[in-house]
Structure formats: C-alpha cells, structure tokens
Amino acid sequence: MELTQDTRTAILAAARELMFESGFDRTTMRGIAERAGVSLGNAYYYFAGKDDLIQGIYDEVAAEHQVRTRAAVRGKRGLGPRITASLLVLVDICDEYEPVADALLTRGIAPRGPLNPFSRESARARELFIETCTELVEGSRGRIDAELRAALPELLWLVQLATTLGWVQDLSEGKVATRRSVERLGTTLGRVVSLSRVPAVRPLVRVLLEQLADLHVARPGWAEL
User: Fold this and answer.
1) Fold of 1-47
2) How far apart are CA 192 and CA 202, in angstroms?
3) What are the backbone dihedrals phi and psi of residue 107, each rounded to the nearest 5 degrees, phi first?
4) 97 three-class SS
5) Which CATH number fits domain 51-222: 3.80.30.20, 1.10.357.10, 3.50.50.60, 1.20.1260.10?
6) pLDDT digits (tens, 9 = 90+) for 122-174
7) How many angstroms from the chain centroid is the CA of residue 119?
8) Fewest beta carbons less than 10 Å away: which of 13, 24, 153, 179?
C-alpha cells in the first residue's frame, strides 16, 4: 500500500476497529498496522503512537459532525432548533464511540496533554467544531447583539464540550437524560440570544463575554502552553 491519504484513512479505520473489539489498552500499533495492511514503520510514519491516532479520530469526528449537522439543520432558521439539532448530532456520534469513550476522553482531560481540546495539537478538530458553530449562527434568522454574535461560535463550542462531558456521566438508558437536556438547552440558548439586544438582558450578555475572556486568559491562544 502506497503512502497516501488512503493509507492514513485505512490506519485510522483499523485503529477504531481494534479499539472497539479489544479496548484501547489492548490495541497495539503492530496490531493496527497488520489490520490496515501496512508495515509497522508505515504506521509510525503517519502516527507517532496511539495518542496520535486518537487525535486523528478526533479530527474525523469533528469533520463528521460538520457534515451531519449541515444536513440536520437544513431548512431550520431559528437558532434554538439549529443548536439543538447540532448537539443531538454530537450525542449520536458520541454513542457510536461509546465502547472507547472512557479511554478517548480520559486522555483529553490533562490540561497540558496534546489531546486536550484547547491544545495546539487539537487545533484542527477545534477549528472544525467552531466553523460548524459559526455556520449555525450565520444561517439563523434574527438580529443578535454584535459583540455576542462575534463570540457565539466559541461559546457554542464550549457548550459542545460541556455536552460531551455530560454524556460521559449519563448512565440513563439510551442517554435519554442527555438528550432531554440538549433539547432544553438548545431552546433556552436560542431564546437568550434572541433577546440579547434587550437592555435588561445586556448584563447577562456581558457576563458571558467576560467568562469567555477569562477562559482566553486561562488558556491563551487556546493553549499556547
């Protein structure tokens, strides 16, 4: 097999299959290479190790979320329904990765780890998710406070992160609690944003913007560690 994008895709597919079958810890780079039909050296040419493979999976998840979200929000103009549809797509994708969710997400918790969502190494996935959130906002109807509109894609990405953490902790059958929460959250966010130009709501908008600014202080440049 030549060293191509197809090779990289095949290695990622093999990694997912083996992790689903045997778990993250029992999956080896040698096993992944054999399943993908490449040499071990070629596998390491594309990925430095299993953590690097996880980053590749994160990138694929972000890209898949974008594709499915675009389909899910087609014809929806209200921001609330668009947010809800996007979050439900995210939950569906999380469900698909449930066999390895603990391993994948545990490695994303470490604040200085390369798999942290704020890290430089996670830039591609983060950019894709924020791009999707930008499309949610730009494709919605209604007037939004200018400052909030500029910050909203990043704020919605943070909501996605919170949703993912909530999904991990949800032990209800079919993650029904997470799905109900997402539907309420999308509706509520849509309403709050639609009122963002109302003077009485401006203090809340200011708090949200200050929270986001503090997060940039905590993680400058989204993780220039």
Assistant:
1) Arc Repressor Mutant, subunit A (1.10.10)
2) 10
3) -75, -10
4) coil
5) 1.10.357.10
6) 999 999 999 999 999 999 998 899 999 999 999 999 999 999 999 999 999 99
7) 13
8) 13
